[in-house]
Amino acid sequence: THNLPPGLEYLNQLDQIIIHQQVELLEAILGTETSSKYEIKNPLGQRVYFAVEENGCFDRKLCSPIRAFTIRIADNAGREVIRVIRPLRCSSCWFPCFLQELEVQSPPGTIAGYVVQNWDPFLPKFTIQNESKEDVLKIIGPYATCGCFEDVDFEVKALNEMTTIGKISKYWSGFVNNVFTNTANFGIQVPVDLDVRIKAVMIGACFLIDLMFFENSLDGL
């Protein structure tokens, strides 16, 4: 473990990561978009990291859910261990040359990997890449991501897209949460021996999936 990025040692033991978006009171009452905050937990519900989104009010109001952001992820000692950077890009399949691309750094300033959206007319598809931009894994979502009264699973697959090795799940959390706030609960399941850098990139992929497919509040009603 001495070769692992500082702060990622704990991910070496995990095959499941829970990401819980915290409820913002102003957002819940007025539907006003606020910066997202997340708790990242182990399967026992113990907090491992805390994540805060940084961007401007202009980005959140006019560009959500394709807004640019930086998410800083800190451990329980307050040390920033992962940084997720999303530039402003398009998410429409009509613009395949400018689809989503997200960079994950760990430690901050050192590339851990990338999440790249792939063009597909029907399915949400992404490629997980390492720090050298070499393809490592695929993520393939369902035809419909509305997830009414049920979980929504994005399957993590080998590069041949035939073998499923894990998943990113958006958990159904009830009518109030899903209609009136942006609050979300996600689970990431991956092999325990997966490189911790790629596990960090999977956390970034989860944030991207959340904003692309589950960004809903009173503003959109």
UniProtKB/TrEMBL annotation:
InterPro entries: Scramblase (IPR005552). Keywords: Calcium, Lipoprotein, Palmitate. One of its GO terms (cellular component) is plasma membrane. It holds the Pfam family Scramblase. Its cofactor is Ca(2+). One of its GO terms (molecular function) is phospholipid scramblase activity. Coiled coil: none annotated. It comes from the Eukaryota. Belongs to the phospholipid scramblase family. May mediate accelerated ATP-independent bidirectional transbilayer migration of phospholipids upon binding calcium ions that results in a loss of phospholipid asymmetry in the plasma membrane. This is Phospholipid scramblase. It comes from Hypocryptadius cinnamomeus. The gene is Plscr5.
